[in-house]
Design goal:
Chains A, B: It comes from Megasphaera hominis. Chains A, B: This is Rrf2 family transcriptional regulator. Two copies of one chain form a homodimer. By secondary structure, the first copy, chain A, is mainly alpha-helical. Chain A contains eight helices and two strands, in the order αααββααααα. In chain A, a hairpin with a 7-residue loop joins β1 and β2. Chain A is elongated and about 75 Å long. The structure holds FE2/S2 (inorganic) cluster (FES) (2 copies).
């Protein structure tokens, strides 16, 4: 079980977008060029981010994307769901219903219909991860990153995106 | 990103094994038959559980498997790692090192060598899930399940495995 590499690109792209001055949209082509990755590759993830309501197509002839929500309203979990999909990590196939002796014993619903505890535990484990990722917003990520990034590098990066 | 169906089978198999009277080993063939699944399919997961030190080959001509640890020492997380592997959920490819302007700016190590915060957040999210799953042992699962399972069904199941 692994997260896809697309998630890493999606999160980094969104971080660049948060750092651009308000009102600037950015093209997938520029984001791809800046990160040394192919535009087609990145475009797939932007389609997912758009469908999830995290980015939106910018108006105007130049196109590109802008954030569809404020950075404090976009969490890591939103991005994970957008890229990886919404199905739970653990897919219970109700394998216990195929137990050999199940029909023969006339079992009460309390045993066969209640949620399987293995399933419940796995779902709760995912909840822990979800809760944590839902606390981490893009605004927080941006704030933290800005304390580390040298100001001239940040300026150079912004200028590059704005010029492109 | 998904857990494999093998994980569901592995956890259910281990639960059957915990419920057998001490000293009984169980064959993959019986576990497969009982659950209505192919033996070859299940055998793959038992190889993984054995490599992870969760089960061991039972001595004697009849073979089969028995638990290699006490049920209170086997956690859900052990089983997840055995079946899904030990690599972290989120694989950071250090994509930030390929940023276009990175060389040109002579950036300090504090920026380029410190762990990427996106990576850190994703690892901590997995930690939350791991912590939770490490608290849940097979002994606990067994205890909880035994309060729900009708006693005659449990007895019939044990008898079936012991007879086989
Ligand atoms: S039946 Fe699916 S986890 Fe138990
Ligand atoms: S470089 Fe891998 S998550 Fe940032």
């Amino acid at each position: 079980m692994k997260f896809s590499v697309g998630l890493e690109y999606a999160l980094h792209c969104l971080l660049y977008m948060v750092d651009l001055p308000e009102g600037y949209s950015v093209g997938v082509r520029e984001l791809a060029h800046y990160q040394g990755v192919s535009e087609t590759y990145l475009a797939k993830f932007f389609t997912k981010l758009r469908k999830a309501g995290i980015v939106k197509a910018a108006p105007g002839v130049n196109g590109g994307y802008e954030l569809a929500l404020a950075p404090q309203d976009i969490t890591f979990w939103h991005v994970v769901e957008a890229i990886e999909g919404k199905t739970p990590l653990f897919q219970c196939d109700e394998i216990r219903q195929r137990e050999l002796l199940l029909d023969q014993d006339n079992l009460p619903d309390a045993y066969t219909k209640c949620p399987c505890l293995i399933h419940t535990v796995m779902n709760e484990a995912e909840d822990r991860m979800r809760q944590y990722l839902n606390e981490k917003t893009l605004a927080w990520l941006h704030g933290q990153t800005m304390t580390k990034i040298p100001q001239d590098h940040r300026k150079a990066m912004q200028d590059w995106f704005i010029k492109e």
